[in-house]
Amino acid sequence: MIRRRRYSRIGLVLGGGAARGWAHIGAIRALHDAGIKPDVVCGTSIGALVGAVYANGDLDWLEEWVSRLSWQTVVRLLDLRISGGLLGGRKVIQLFAEKFAGCSIAQLKMPFAAVATELDTGREIWLQDGSTIDSVRASIAIPGIFTPVWHNGVWLVDGGLSNPVPVSVARGMRADCVIAIDLNNDILNGRDFGGAVVETPALDPGAPPQVALRRNGKPWPRWLAPADARVTDDVRVAPPRSARVPSMLSSVAQSIDIMQVRITRSRLAGEPADILIQPRLGGMGIFDFHRAAPAIEEGRAAVEYMLPAIRARLGMD
């Protein structure tokens, strides 16, 4: 029998990160295998979705479902629309709504909270009562990607804008030991867009300056120079012909990643977790929902790597 000597209420915090959130499944599995079962769970964005399913006792179903996802299935589930966001998310939300079957947060098998952000004010919103599926839908409403959600007279969007790894929420739920899972620690260091990375050669200080040229071979006037040219030492240099202009989705995705990383680091610096688990998911994009297997495995590996520290912190035999 495992005894908890130091803490009476363990909180599990599941951070946002879109498709990287499948790593939470492996992390929860590894914690359970080690005899560590949280008393409360909270999450932001995909962390709210996985956390709600976990709190409802349906983690087995979720793991089986995500393991069957293909890219074609993901495209069919993410319904394209124009107003409010690129994706309506109606189909995938309906799938989870059927699983929750009208269950309220109070009816879940363990205390749960989701984090969203009030669109008009930027205020952080903790969703701890009412419809489980409505709370999850609000928490995953990534601006520009999923449509905002009208909730109690205000528009709500993704909780990642205000609190991507909501340690403060777990503290508010009276957790005296917080285990947090941050999915975004290394995502700016290991991108995998399916193509080679193009590096611009360094300029030779002694070489004549390179400038962006028009088709007639003459340089552009400064005020007409192409916007995608690079400025170096007050000279505009054209990108190499092999450089690929980022697509709209990849530009949005990378912008979201940068935002998540910056906000996460700031919040965790002021509100540190007792135990911070950081899976290495740098090669996984936010839309790679069909790559569940490697994400789950990385989540498990990250917890197993931290187990000695976790056991020491919890004072486990």
From TrEMBL:
The keyword Hydrolase applies. Keywords: Hydrolase, Lipid degradation, Lipid metabolism. The active site is at residues 45, 158. A motif (DGA/G) lies at residues 158-160. InterPro entries: Acyl_Trfase/lysoPLipase, NTE, PNPLA_dom. Gene3D superfamilies: Cytosolic phospholipase A2 catalytic domain. Pfam families: Patatin. The keyword Chaperone does not apply. Residues 12-171 form the PNPLA domain. A motif (GXSXG) lies at residues 43-47. This is NTE family protein. It comes from Paraburkholderia metrosideri.
